[in-house]
């Protein structure tokens, strides 16, 4: 129980709140008096912490006659809540970074040689502020390899966040690559893919022979090499702006695509 309590405290629970949540979860349903007795506190002191958990949505209350009973949300619901809190915090990172004085002339370059690097990019993009736009360019080979890199659950998490936060995807693909999602994604993930906000144009593979992926988002440019699971990110406002300008120049020459992913 102590180990579980310490894990909850990593997510902003006080020691008292974590013990109360675990106690209510263990009992299934409890009164304030029962919880106060369980944690060894006066009823008023216990309710102070219970009220915080109610405000967070971690505990729920129901009335049985005149008596109030408490129930705890299920652990999987709590996990989803933690995920939402983490995503909300990540969306505030650009504002926090703006408060920090950094050397704008020195790019930060990071190279990751594993699938973990891919998921980190998708995690950062899906945590962007609501209504943000990111750019992506890739050809058929890159898309074929990309779709096999993550699990169905990981794709579901990424697509769901993108849809929920109304993040716009400005894409430049080869005409051949638009047929790949329907071949590799599950029906659920394909549905989420189609629900995203897309601005897509296509170019013939002959004039756009790109076997890698390029993501441009915020002040970052990410180059992904699916065949060797290599990711390189460059964080620099000027480089990101210059790369975005090159992308947009190619984008206007592309053919408009309805993003049906048939």
Record keyword descriptors for this entry:
262 residues; alpha+beta; Arc Repressor Mutant, subunit A; Endonuclease, Chain A; eight-stranded mixed beta sheet; three-stranded antiparallel beta sheet; 12 helices
Can you tell me about this structure?
The protein is α+β, with helices and mostly antiparallel strands and 262 residues long. It has 2 domains: 2-73, Orthogonal Bundle (Arc Repressor Mutant, subunit A), CATH 1.10.10; 100-257, Endonuclease Chain A (Endonuclease, Chain A, 2-Layer Sandwich), CATH 3.30.870. Helices cover 49% and strands 23% of the residues. It has 12 helices and 11 strands. The chain has an 8-stranded mixed sheet, with helices on both faces. Strands 1-3-2 form a 3-stranded antiparallel sheet.
Give a nutshell description of this structure:
By secondary structure, this protein is an alpha+beta fold.
Count structural domains: 2
Order of helices and strands: HHEHHEEHHEHEHHEHHEEEEHE
The CATH topology of the largest domain is given as: Endonuclease, Chain A
Q: Could you state the CATH homologous superfamily of the largest domain? A: Endonuclease Chain A
Q: Which consecutive residue ranges, at least 5 long each, have pLDDT under 50?
A: none
What is the end-to-end distance?
50 Å
Give the biggest sheet.
Answer: 8 strands, mixed
Structural class by sheet pairing and helices: alpha+beta
Shape: elongated
Q: What is the total tally of β strands? A: 11
Q: If you compute it from the alpha carbons, what radius of gyration comes out, rounded to the nearest whole angstrom?
A: 23 Å
CATH class (first level) name of the largest domain: Alpha Beta
* Portion in strands: 15-25%
**In which range does the helix fraction lie?**
40-55%
CATH architecture of the largest domain: 2-Layer Sandwich
- With strands numbered from the N-terminus, the spatial order across the biggest sheet is 4-10-9-8-5-6-7-11
């Amino acid at each position: 129980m102590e180990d579980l309590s310490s894990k909850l405290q990593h997510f902003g629970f006080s020691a008292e709140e974590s013990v109360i949540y675990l106690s209510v979860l263990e009992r299934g349903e409890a009164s304030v008096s029962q919880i106060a007795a369980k944690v060894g506190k006066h009823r008023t002191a216990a309710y102070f912490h219970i009220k915080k958990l109610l405000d967070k949505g971690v505990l729920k209350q129901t009335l049985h006659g005149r008596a109030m009973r408490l129930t705890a949300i299920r652990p999987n619901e709590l996990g989803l809540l933690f995920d939402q809190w983490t995503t909300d915090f990540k969306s505030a990172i650009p504002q926090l970074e703006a408060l920090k004085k950094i050397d704008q002339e020195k790019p930060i370059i990071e190279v990751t040689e594993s699938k973990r690097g891919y998921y980190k990019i998708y995690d950062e993009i899906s945590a962007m502020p609501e209504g943000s736009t990111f750019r992506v360019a890739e050809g058929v080979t890159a898309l074929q390899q990309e779709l096999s890199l993550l699990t169905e659950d990981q794709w579901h998490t990424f697509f769901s966040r993108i849809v929920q936060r109304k993040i716009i995807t400005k894409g430049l693909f080869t005409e051949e690559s638009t047929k790949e999602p329907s071949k590799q994604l599950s029906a659920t993930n394909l549905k989420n893919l189609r629900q995203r906000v897309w601005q897509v144009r296509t170019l013939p593979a002959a004039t756009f022979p790109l076997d890698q992926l390029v993501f441009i988002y915020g002040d970052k440019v990410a180059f992904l090499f699916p065949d060797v699971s290599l990711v390189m990110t460059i964080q620099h406002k000027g480089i990101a702006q210059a790369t975005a300008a090159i992308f947009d120049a190619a984008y206007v020459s592309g053919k408009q695509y309805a993003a049906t992913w048939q």
